[in-house]
UniProtKB/TrEMBL annotation:
Transmembrane segments: none
Keyword Transport: yes
Pfam families: Fer4_15
GO molecular function: 3 iron, 4 sulfur cluster binding; metal ion binding
Database matches in InterPro entries: Fe-S_cluster_ET
Protein name (record): Ferredoxin
Ranges for region Disordered: 76-98
Entries under Gene3D superfamilies matching the protein: 3.30.70.20
Keywords per UniProt: 3Fe-4S, Electron transport, Iron, Iron-sulfur, Metal-binding, Transport
PANTHER family linked to this entry: FERREDOXIN (PTHR36923)
Length: 98
């Protein structure tokens, strides 16, 4: 896992440094700084995710490839997902006009 901190968004609440002090420090004015290059060890992942989720201004973001953890769900019965879209051709059926 790798994280990024947007210091222009940070409002200095300090919650990140409370939850993950190994990865976040506070400068002289109370704004967060990332310690190191943003790479998070697997054993510290929960603490950093807690800091990320509890940040009131969403200044912390997880970056990198997550495809190994996500699972693509198959379409039910190979149904075309665009079959039920509202379009100009079926606007009378859906009840909208231009």
């Amino acid at each position: 896992m790798k994280i990024r901190l947007d210091r222009t968004v940070c409002d200095g609440f300090g919650i990140c440094a409370k939850h993950a002090p190994k990865y976040f420090s506070l400068d002289d004015w109370g704004y967060a700084c990332v310690i190191g290059d943003g790479t998070v060890a697997e054993e510290d992942r929960d603490d950093v995710m807690r800091a990320l989720m509890d940040c009131p201004v969403h200044a912390i973001a997880e970056i990198g490839d997550r495809t190994s953890r996500t699972r693509q769900l198959p379409l039910a019965d190979a149904e075309d997902p665009a079959e039920h879209l509202k379009t100009e051709e079926n606007e009378a059926e859906w009840g909208f006009t231009r």
